[in-house]
Each structure stands twice: as structure tokens, then as C-alpha cells.
Design brief:
It is a single chain. This protein has 176 residues and is mainly alpha-helical. Strands 2-1-3 form a three-stranded antiparallel β-sheet, with no helix packed on it. A hairpin with a 5-residue loop joins strand 1 and strand 2. Helix 1 runs antiparallel to helix 3 and helix 2 runs antiparallel to helix 4. The longest helix has 27 residues. The protein starts with a strand and ends with a helix. It binds fe (ii) ion (2 copies). The site of one fe (ii) ion has 8 residues, from loops.
Length: 176
């Protein structure tokens, strides 16, 4: 029987037969998914100075990553890369939205396409992805350790898991 599930990280809802392994919107792992009837909207905490600074930095990082993936999607001629970058661009934008809610920044639905951010080369795109995801994971691990607010900890924990999935996926592709 189909039912409604919600993600505790991004708040998005989806209809499925059973809980999927990852949120289809932000990529958060299964532990953050709940039956929509049990969902409670997370409260926005009062932020420490360091968390605010870290979240501002993370917001920019996610927007930038999304722009780069968007560029790769538009330039690539490889259907696999087009599909992969399409989902990565959306997921990173969702992350920016999640972070934005914590720091009171709203997302404009369209982020400008920047031609100069990438090339059409497949290997170069995958290597750039490894660089972006590795960088994000490193920052988010540090930010998680510096966070005192439970909501901020949950967000960084989920983001680390998602960016690690992206990294593993990309490295697997590079080995082919
Ligand atoms: Fe989500
Ligand atoms: Fe992200």
C-alpha cells in the first residue's frame, strides 16, 4: 500500500510503497525518513556565532556546487553524466534551501547558469565532482564538531552522509 513519507532534513514529502533508502529530494539516509503522520517540523534554533558563520559558508558552497553541476549537465553529451549532474544539481540546491532556512536566507528558484564553471569533458567533470564533494565533507565534519544546536548537528550529519554517497558514486565511475 502506498503511503506518504517525509524527510526530517528537508521536510519534503513523497508517496511510496515503503520507505526508500534515501530522501529523493535531499538524499538524506533512511534514518531521517518518517511516516508523514509522525512528522514534526523542526524548530529553528538560536544560532551560536560559529554555527551561523559555518552555515553561511555552507550555503554558498552548496549554491556554487549546484551551479557547477548544472553547468556540467548542460554541456555534457554523455547521458549518464547528464543524469548524474541533473540529480546532483537538484540535491545541492535542496541543501542550500535547508541551510537557508536556518540562517533566514531564501532561495530564488533559478540560479544563473555560468558557462565558465565547467567543460564538457567527462573525466574533468568527475574529477571536479570528487574535489567538490571531498571539500564539502571536510568542512561539514569540522562544522558538525563545532555545532552545539541539535538541528544544526542533524543537518551536518545528513549532509556528510549525502556528500559521501556522491563521492563514492563518482569514484566508482572514475575507476571504470
Ligand atoms: Fe530530504
Ligand atoms: Fe550538498
Amino acid at each position: 500500500m502506498v503511503q506518504v513519507f517525509r524527510c526530517k532534513i528537508c521536510g519534503e514529502a513523497f508517496v511510496a510503497n515503503s520507505k526508500s533508502t534515501h530522501c529523493p529530494f535531499c538524499g538524506a539516509p533512511i534514518k531521517f525518513l518518517v511516516d508523514a503522520k509522525e512528522y514534526v517540523e523542526p524548530k529553528i534554533p538560536e544560532l551560536s556565532e560559529i554555527s551561523r558563520k559555518n552555515l553561511e559558508f555552507s550555503f554558498d558552497l552548496e549554491v556554487k556546487a549546484s551551479q557547477i553541476y548544472q553547468c556540467m549537465r548542460k554541456k555534457s553529451k554523455d547521458e549518464f553524466i547528464i543524469g548524474m549532474m541533473k540529480t546532483l544539481a537538484k540535491v545541492e540546491l535542496e541543501h542550500a534551501e535547508v541551510i537557508g532556512k536556518l540562517i533566514g536566507k531564501s532561495m530564488s528558484c533559478e540560479i544563473p547558469f555560468k558557462e565558465e564553471l565547467c567543460t564538457a569533458d567527462k573525466a574533468e567533470s568527475l574529477n571536479k565532482t570528487v574535489e567538490l564533494e571531498t571539500g564539502a565533507i571536510g568542512h561539514y565534519k569540522k562544522f558538525l564538531s563545532e555545532a552545539t544546536e541539535q538541528r544544526v548537528k542533524d543537518v551536518f550529519e545528513a549532509l556528510i552522509a549525502v556528500e559521501t554517497d556522491h563521492l563514492n558514486l563518482t569514484e566508482k565511475e572514475l575507476k571504470k
